Amino acid sequence: MKKLVIGNLKMNILSPDERDRYLAWLKKELAGKKNNDSEIILCPPFVHMEAFKKWNNKKIHLGAQNMFSETKGSYTGEISPVMLKNLGCEYVILGHSERRRYFGESNGSINLKIASALKNGLKPILCVGETREEKENERTLGVITNQVKEALLGVKRAKAEQIILAYEPVWAIGGEKVPTANEIMEAKLLIRKILVDLFGKKYADLVPIIYGGNVNIKTVAGVCVDSGMDGVLIGRESLQPHEFVKIADIINNSCKF
Ligand code: PGA
Known about the structure:
257 residues, alpha/beta, TIM Barrel, binds 2-phosphoglycolic acid
C-alpha cells in the first residue's frame, strides 16, 4: 500500500495570481523527485480545482474539501460529487472537524455524503477524532467508535478499498501539540477493529488509516513513521510547498527501510 500525503489547503489561496505562484513554487519543489512509495493528493478550494487540474502535474492527485450528498438540482451553494468527478477530482475529504464544528455536520449527514461519494466514484477521506474536552473526559475511544460506525453505516465491504480513514484529534489541528506515538497506535488499532467488525479482516486491511493534526517536518516521524500510520493529512504546512514536499520525502524515504 502506498503511503498517502494529503494536503488540505482549506480556505486559503485568495486569488488566481496567488494560486499561480503557489503552483509554480510547488512545481519547483517537486522537480526531480520520484516519491515512488507515496501518493501526493492536494485538496484545493473548489474555485481552484480546474486550474489545479489543468496544471496537469502527474505527481499530484486531486481531492475536494467537501461535497453535497445530492448530485444535481436546487441546492443553492452546494457542490455535486459529479461536478468534482468531471473535473478530474479523485478524492473528497468528508467529516473534517471544521465542517462538524462550524457547519453542524453530523455523523448522519456525513454518512449520506460517504454513500454518495462512493456511488459517484470519489474516494472519501473520512476524518474522525476527539476534541480536547472529550480527551480530558476520557471519551476518545467512544467518540471515535461512534464516528466511524455511524459514518460508514450501510457501506458494502466491496467498497472498503475506496475509503481512507484519517485520525485527526481536534485539539492537535492547527495547534502546537501532537499525540504520542502510543496514543496514535491505540486509535489506529481501534479503527482497524471497527473496520474488521464492519467489513471482515480481508477488506478492512485494504483501508489506509492516516494521521492528521499539526503535521510538520519535526512531528512527521513520530505521528506517521514511528506510529505505523499509512500517511498524513496536512493543513498549514501544505501551504508551504517546500515544507510539504519535504514531509512527503521523509515519508517516502521511511518506506525504504
Ligand atoms: P493542521 O491541519 O496540519 O494545520 O493541523 C490539519 C487538518 O485540519 O487536517
